[in-house]
Specification:
The protein has 2 helices and 6 strands, in the order ββαβαβββ. With about 100 residues, the chain is α+β, with helices and mostly antiparallel strands. It has one domain: S-adenosyl-l-methionine hydroxide adenosyltransferase, N-terminal (Rossmann fold).
């Protein structure tokens, strides 16, 4: 997915995390990635799919021929805090749905 939320760009999988960003943004545009490279790793789309598209966007060349615009992300969360762990990586870092301003210092 490619998401433009409040003027910032995000490129990543359709796994629900971008839905949190989209739900908290005032303005969004969303595209589904339709392009696949000739050689595609079974497990590392970050390098094979997302990085080349993010590089194009960073260089000011939106990859319109590799995406299709969609109305919204399929998973859409409210803009309120989501008091649960959304993702935990293999290091034990946890990503929650809490706004930073609501977490005590």
């Amino acid at each position: 997915m490619i998401l433009q939320a409040d003027g910032k760009w995000y490129v990543g999988p359709d796994n629900g995390l971008l839905s949190v960003v989209a739900a908290r943004a005032a303005e969004t545009q969303v595209w589904r990635i339709t392009w696949r490279p000739e050689i595609l790793s079974a497990s590392f789309h970050g390098r094979d799919v997302f990085a080349p598209l993010a590089a194009s966007i960073a260089n000011g060349a939106f990859p319109a021929d590799k995406v299709e615009k969609i109305r919204a992300l399929q998973v859409r969360l409210g803009s309120e805090d989501l008091p649960e762990v959304i993702h935990a990586d293999h290091y034990g870092n946890a990503l929650t749905g809490l706004h930073a301003r609501h977490v005590p210092q």
